[in-house]
Design brief:
By secondary structure, this protein is α+β, with helices and mostly antiparallel strands. It has 3 helices and 8 strands. The strands form 2 sheets. The protein has a 5-stranded antiparallel β-sheet, with no helix packed on it. Bound molecules: zinc ion.
């Protein structure tokens, strides 16, 4: 599921919160083409093409461009629209909103709060409690299972303190 080569991406960080501001030329050299097309050219991946669309494992969805945490698995729901759908972002600052009038349709675009990459759109037809549907391109999401994060944390703390 890890299609993004972070070795070539100097801005990717799960802990650095500082705003990322690169030129389009720089983005082009850092990002794989399929990520660049969605993130920087506001493209849309084919519906039902993302393996994350029907991923129901427990964990966190990060921005595949910069590593900013965007959504948690417990806010993901089956929308049937063909793209990973969530009803609430991790925090208010995870996401930036903008009016989008492209193709003669009034929509609200959602972008990453850290790197301003295009993620998708938000609609008012989601489930409670927010009634929102964040319809997100899977190619700009990076999923990490909860156990993997826990293992990494334990390793960083100098070994597992409890056995499973
Ligand atoms: Zn980002």
């Amino acid at each position: 599921m890890d299609t993004n080569n972070k070795a070539d991406n100097p801005v990717y960080s799960r802990s650095d919160q500082s705003v990322v501001n690169l030129t389009e030329e720089q983005w082009k050299t850092i990002l794989p083409k399929n990520v660049y097309d969605v993130a920087r050219n506001k493209g849309t991946e084919r519906p039902y093409s993302s393996p994350l669309e029907d991923n129901y494992e427990i964990g966190t969805y990060y921005c595949a461009v910069c590593g900013n945490p965007l959504f948690r698995s417990d806010t993901k729901f089956e929308s049937g629209c063909g793209w990973p759908s969530f009803y609430e972002p991790v925090s208010k600052s995870s996401i930036i909103y903008a009016a989008d009038h492209a193709h003669g349709i009034d929509r609200t675009e959602v972008m990453c709060g850290r790197c301003k990459s295009h993620l998708g759109h938000v609609f008012n037809d989601g489930p409670p409690p927010t009634r929102l549907r964040y319809c997100i391109n899977g190619v700009v999401l990076d999923f990490e299972k909860a156990q993997d994060a826990e293992k990494k944390y334990n390793a960083e703390q100098g070994g597992a303190k409890h056995d499973h």
